[in-house]
């Protein structure tokens, strides 16, 4: 499935008009871990939350930033602001200071924190969506497909409304492979690969990638394989969207589609 820029722009304008009357506030640097864990965790494991200050509860989007699990910073994408959503920008620890599995646990803790505190920010816990770009998309898939991470935080991953990762690694993340001395061009599928945890009862999944000829390494093909395997095991609600003409940095053309998919999935659940 391929899309072009004019379509994105029209979608974006529609959402902007939809939410103009609602007032919003952004609160930054909310800790989601116990301060006794470590100074590094206290520094990194923080959230920025953009939320409506009045009206009914709104769908929640957790946004995990990219950066190869070794860098980057939390963000609330500007395009998602004032669109009738509670948007959460998630910070997390980085390798090599911690292992990749510890970073995945951070993602699960952040998700659980939002579930428990959503009422403070007019968030609708029946409509929680997990998203993010590149490494952030990988984290979104890992905490959803491998249910044990969220189970450890007291939450059932199947209660999520949808997973919409942007150009996610679906084989074992290259930073996890680096921990084992495996080159980034040597594909591996083990317990730290979303593909390893393919299951038919996962929440709806929308996979977004750049152009297959322009993407980072084999990122489009990884996502195409995940989609195929989800369908093979009986998962009924998944799709793959390829943005023609865009490389790995396909965040903007993806954001309007993210909004559209959220709107569609919320209506499906009503």
- Write out the strand line-up for the largest beta sheet, numbering strands in chain order: 1-2-4-3-5-6-7-8
The number of helices is: 8
Q: Helical residue percent?
A: 25-40%
Low-confidence stretches: 3-19
Note the topology:
Elements: H1 5-18, E1 24-31, H2 39-44, E2 46-52, E3 58-64, E4 86-90, H3 100-117, E5 123-133, H4 135-145, H5 148-151, E6 162-166, H6 174-179, E7 205-210, H7 219-232, E8 238-243, H8 251-269
Parallel strand pairs: 3-4, 3-5, 5-6, 6-7, 7-8
Antiparallel strand pairs: 1-2, 2-4
Helix pairs in contact: 1-8, 3-4
Domain BD-FAE-like: 47-211
Pfam families: BD-FAE
Protein name: Alpha/beta hydrolase
Provide structural commentary.
With 270 residues, the protein is α/β, with parallel strands linked by helices. It has a single domain (5-269), classed as Alpha/Beta hydrolase fold, catalytic domain (Rossmann fold), CATH 3.40.50.1820. Helices cover 34% and strands 20% of the residues. The protein has eight helices and eight strands. It has an eight-stranded mixed β-sheet with strand order 1-2-4-3-5-6-7-8, with helices on both faces. α1 crosses α8 (251-269) and α3 packs across α4. The radius of gyration is 17 Å and the shape is globular. The model is unreliable at 3-19 (pLDDT under 50).
In short:
It comes from Sphingobacterium phlebotomi. It is built from eight helices and eight strands, in the order H-E-H-E-E-E-H-E-H-H-E-H-E-H-E-H.
Describe the structure using short key phrases.
270 residues; alpha/beta; Rossmann fold; eight-stranded mixed sheet; disordered N terminus; AB_hydrolase_fold; BD-FAE-like_dom; hydrolase
């Amino acid at each position: 499935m391929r899309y072009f820029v004019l379509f994105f722009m029209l979608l974006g304008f529609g959402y902007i008009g939809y939410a103009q009357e609602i007032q919003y506030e952004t609160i930054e640097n909310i800790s989601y871990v116990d301060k006794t864990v470590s100074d590094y965790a206290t520094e990194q494991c923080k959230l920025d939350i953009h939320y409506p200050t009045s009206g009914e509860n709104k769908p929640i989007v957790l946004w995990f930033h990219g950066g190869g699990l070794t860098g980057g910073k939390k963000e609330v994408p500007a395009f998602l602001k004032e669109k009738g959503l509670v948007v959460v920008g998630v910070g997390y620890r980085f390798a090599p200071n911690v292992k990749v599995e510890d970073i995945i646990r951070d993602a699960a803790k952040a998700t659980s924190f939002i579930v428990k505190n959503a009422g403070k920010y007019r968030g609708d816990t029946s409509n929680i969506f997990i998203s993010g770009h590149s490494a952030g998309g990988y984290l979104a898939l890992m905490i959803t497909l491998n249910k044990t991470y969220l189970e450890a935080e007291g939450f059932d991953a199947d209660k999520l409304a949808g997973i919409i990762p942007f150009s996610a690694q679906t084989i074992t993340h290259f930073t996890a492979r680096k921990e084992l001395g495996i080159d980034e061009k040597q594909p591996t599928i083990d317990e730290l690969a979303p593909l390893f945890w393919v299951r038919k009862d996962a929440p709806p999944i929308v996979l977004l990638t750049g152009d297959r000829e322009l993407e980072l390494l084999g990122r489009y093909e990884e996502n195409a394989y995940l989609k195929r395997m989800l369908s093979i095991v009986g998962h009924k609600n998944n799709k793959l969207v390829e943005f023609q003409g865009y490389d790995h940095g396909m965040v903007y053309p993806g954001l309007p589609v993210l909004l559209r998919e959220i709107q569609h999935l919320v209506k499906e659940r009503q």
